[in-house]
């Protein structure tokens, strides 16, 4: 085992967190990649146990977003050919939620396109949350764009437990992927949700042209915010977006990124999210290198694995599904 890996293991074993310089040294060290994965897995099991948290989403409002995020199929600035529709009816959301619950999912998120919702649509989402609380045992999450403290309080009162709002990348790289709003706008919403007493799910996308140093910076920014649920998306280049021809990152680099996130934030749910099919057979490796959460089913505009396929894979690896 390399000197830096031994140092990091000892530090984490003693209950201390690694710093930025140590994470960079770890990322640049000549070491056996399997040793890094093994340490990340060991730390994950120590802090989070042997269980994998499943969540699912519904794309409850699609397309025509006024923001210009360069990776996003739902931006109205690009011609991507995705379906566009207004907010779904409550019954449509209930049907999807109940189907997912039956499959073994225990967290369900209502996701809407756009920078934020109109007051009318926001009220409808509140009604959805009340109905879901009444008719399912699911833990409820929402991703509705920017949010005031008052709106966050209303969501919590309706029965929401978690709010999802990604930072997408680190502060220094953010202007490369969007200029219709700022990184600080996203931080403002995250802090509003936290202030209202909601748990925040916040992560980002890798493979947008950033380097490993920027990914590590993102991990430290998430740690500083106190985030304990971190979805890691792998860019799925969408035809018609500015990142259509982005160079794909190697599967081993993706798993290495996951391991580094785990060692930087030992106590978080680090989740596979969109784009994980890019890993191919290495998807399984992620569960042995720091992943302990997974978004199952379809994503916003792309198709994912079936819930049953993911549950089978998790159990074959020797892990349990959270109940």
TrEMBL record:
Belongs to the radical SAM superfamily. Biotin synthase family. [2Fe-2S] cluster binds at residues 109, 141, 201, 271. InterPro entries: Aldolase_TIM (IPR013785), BATS_dom (IPR010722), Biotin_synth/BioAB (IPR002684), Biotin_synthase (IPR024177), Elp3/MiaA/NifB-like_rSAM (IPR006638), rSAM (IPR007197), rSAM_sf (IPR058240). Pathway: Cofactor biosynthesis; biotin biosynthesis; biotin from 7,8-diaminononanoate: step 2/2. Its cofactor is [2Fe-2S] cluster; [4Fe-4S] cluster. Binds 1 [2Fe-2S] cluster. The cluster is coordinated with 3 cysteines and 1 arginine. It is an enzyme of class 2 (transferase). It catalyses: (4R,5S)-dethiobiotin + (sulfur carrier)-SH + 2 reduced [2Fe-2S]-[ferredoxin] + 2 S-adenosyl-L-methionine = (sulfur carrier)-H + biotin + 2 5'-deoxyadenosine + 2 L-methionine + 2 oxidized [2Fe-2S]-[ferredoxin]. HAMAP family: BioB. PROSITE patterns: RADICAL_SAM. Keywords: 2Fe-2S, 4Fe-4S, Biotin biosynthesis, Iron, Iron-sulfur, Metal-binding, S-adenosyl-L-methionine, Transferase. Catalyzes the conversion of dethiobiotin (DTB) to biotin by the insertion of a sulfur atom into dethiobiotin via a radical-based mechanism. Its EC number is 2.8.1.6. Homodimer. It comes from Desulforamulus aeronauticus DSM 10349. [4Fe-4S] cluster binds at residues 65, 69, 72. One of its GO terms (biological process) is biotin biosynthetic process. It comes from the Bacteria. This is Biotin synthase. GO terms for molecular function: 2 iron, 2 sulfur cluster binding; 4 iron, 4 sulfur cluster binding; biotin synthase activity; iron ion binding. Residues 47-276 form the Radical SAM core domain.
């Amino acid at each position: 085992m390399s000197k830096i890996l031994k140092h990091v293991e000892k530090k984490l074993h003693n209950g201390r967190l690694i710093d930025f310089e140590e994470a960079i040294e770890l990322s640049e060290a000549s070491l056996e990649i399997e040793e890094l994965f093994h340490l990340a897995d060991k730390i994950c099991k120590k802090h989070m146990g042997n269980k994998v948290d499943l969540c699912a989403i519904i794309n409850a409002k699609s397309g025509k977003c006024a923001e210009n995020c360069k990776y996003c199929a739902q931006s109205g600035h690009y011609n991507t050919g995705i379906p566009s529709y207004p907010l779904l009816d409550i019954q449509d959301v209930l049907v999807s939620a109940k189907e997912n619950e039956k499959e073994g999912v225990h967290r369900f998120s209502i996701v809407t396109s756009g920078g934020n919702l109109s007051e009318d649509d926001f009220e409808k989402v509140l009604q959805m949350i009340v109905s879901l609380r009444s008719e399912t045992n699911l833990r409820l999450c929402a991703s509705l764009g920017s949010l005031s403290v008052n709106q966050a309080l209303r969501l919590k009162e309706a029965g929401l437990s978690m709010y999802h709002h990604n930072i997408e990348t680190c502060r220094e790289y953010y202007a490369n992927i969007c200029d219709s709003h700022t990184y600080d706008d996203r931080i403002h919403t995250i802090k509003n949700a936290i202030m209202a007493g909601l748990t925040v799910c916040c992560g980002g996308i890798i493979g947008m042209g950033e380097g490993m140093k920027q990914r590590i910076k993102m991990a430290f920014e998430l740690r500083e915010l106190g985030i304990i649920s971190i979805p890691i998306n792998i860019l799925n280049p969408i035809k018609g977006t500015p990142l259509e021809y982005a160079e794909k990152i190697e599967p081993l680099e993706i798993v290495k990124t996951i391991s580094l996130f785990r060692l930087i934030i030992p106590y978080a749910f680090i989740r596979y999210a969109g784009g994980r099919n890019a890993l191919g057979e290495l998807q399984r490796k992620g569960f042995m290198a720091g992943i302990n959460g997974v978004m199952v089913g379809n994503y916003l505009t792309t198709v994912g694995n079936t819930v049953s396929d993911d549950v089978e894979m998790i159990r074959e690896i020797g892990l349990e599904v959270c109940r």
